[in-house]
Structure formats: structure tokens, C-alpha cells
Design a protein that fits this description.
This protein has 154 residues and is an alpha+beta fold. The protein has two domains: 83 residues, Alpha-Beta Plaits (2-Layer Sandwich); 52 residues, SH3 type barrels (Roll). It has three helices and nine strands, in the order βαββαββββββα. The strands form two sheets. The protein has a five-stranded antiparallel beta sheet with strand order 2-3-1-4-5, with no helix packed on it. It has a four-stranded antiparallel beta sheet with strand order 6-7-8-9. It is elongated and about 50 Å long. The structure holds zinc ion. Zinc ion binds next to loops.
Length: 154
């Protein structure tokens, strides 16, 4: 039997972000501010076969543990993502990201006339109205944004 799964090297200490929608890994890296001058090893699997989702992306980052705000941002791009915290080659903790009920300053409102897009700085605030499919509503102008619009606003 041929093993078709892509094997990404194990990490000693760090974070594994699994079940990212195929093609969204680079967006996640962008959120985590991982660019060419990164100081730790990063393994990226793009379009990896996955029984459950068809295809997925996977990211493994050495010596990096994510902040709450980073997890919240990831939940907007990859609502199904699972996070594994690895210490000394074993998974110490595993959980799924969870889209928060309130999104403070994470995304920009798609309504150009919204007060949050004005000259006076007003922090954006969105309420989650649906998780599957993902949908959020601006607290100020009531504009609703779907997954595609959220992606465009980040
Ligand atoms: Zn708005």
C-alpha cells in the first residue's frame, strides 16, 4: 500500500496548525508575521490530502506559541483549524480554534462609509452571528460580512 500522506518532519517544541482550508496557509503565515527573515523553522504543507476535508494545509512552527489574538485571527480564516502544542516531540495540548463572539479591531468593515473607516480612529467591532457558514455583523453600521468579505478585509 502506498502512503499518500505528506510527512512533515516532527517538531521538538512549537505549534502545529492543522486543518487549514487548502490554499489558506500563506494567509495564516501572514497573520503570524512569518516572512523570509523568520528566526525559527517553519514547515508548510499546502494542498495535503486529508480524508476528512479532501485537501488541507498544515503549518508547523518551531519555538512559537500563539497568542489569543493570533488564534482569533486564525479562526476567521480557518474555522476548523486544530492547534497542537508540542513540547519535547509530544503533543502537550490539542484544541480547535474558536471564533469569538465579539471581534475587536481584528478586521475592517466592508462599508467604506462606516465610522470605523473614517478619519477619526474608531476601533472596529463585529458580532459573530453565524459560525457555519461564518458571518459577522458590524456593531456600528450593521453591515454583515461573509467568509469571502472577511478574507478581503484582513
Ligand atoms: Zn461598519
Amino acid at each position: 500500500m502506498v502512503d499518500k500522506t505528506l510527512k512533515i518532519s516532527k517538531i521538538k517544541d512549537g505549534t502545529v496548525i492543522d486543518h487549514i482550508p487548502a490554499g489558506k496557509a500563506l494567509k495564516v503565515l501572514n497573520i503570524l508575521n512569518i516572512s523570509e527573515d523568520v528566526s525559527s523553522s517553519v514547515s508548510i504543507g499546502i494542498h495535503v490530502p486529508s480524508g476528512k476535508f479532501g485537501y488541507k494545509d498544515v503549518i508547523k512552527i518551531e519555538n512559537r506559541f500563539l497568542e489569543k489574538i493570533e488564534l482569533d485571527m486564525i479562526s476567521l480564516i480557518a474555522p476548523e483549524a486544530s492547534i497542537s502544542i508540542v513540547t519535547d516531540y509530544s503533543i502537550k495540548e490539542k484544541f480547535n480554534v474558536e471564533l469569538p463572539q465579539t471581534l475587536l479591531g481584528l478586521i475592517n468593515c466592508a462599508n467604506q462609509n462606516c465610522i470605523t473607516n473614517g478619519n477619526e480612529p474608531v476601533k472596529s467591532e463585529f458580532e459573530t452571528i453565524s459560525r457555519n457558514p461564518i458571518s459577522v455583523r458590524c456593531r456600528y453600521c450593521e453591515r454583515e460580512m461573509n467568509y469571502k468579505e472577511i478574507q478581503a478585509s484582513m
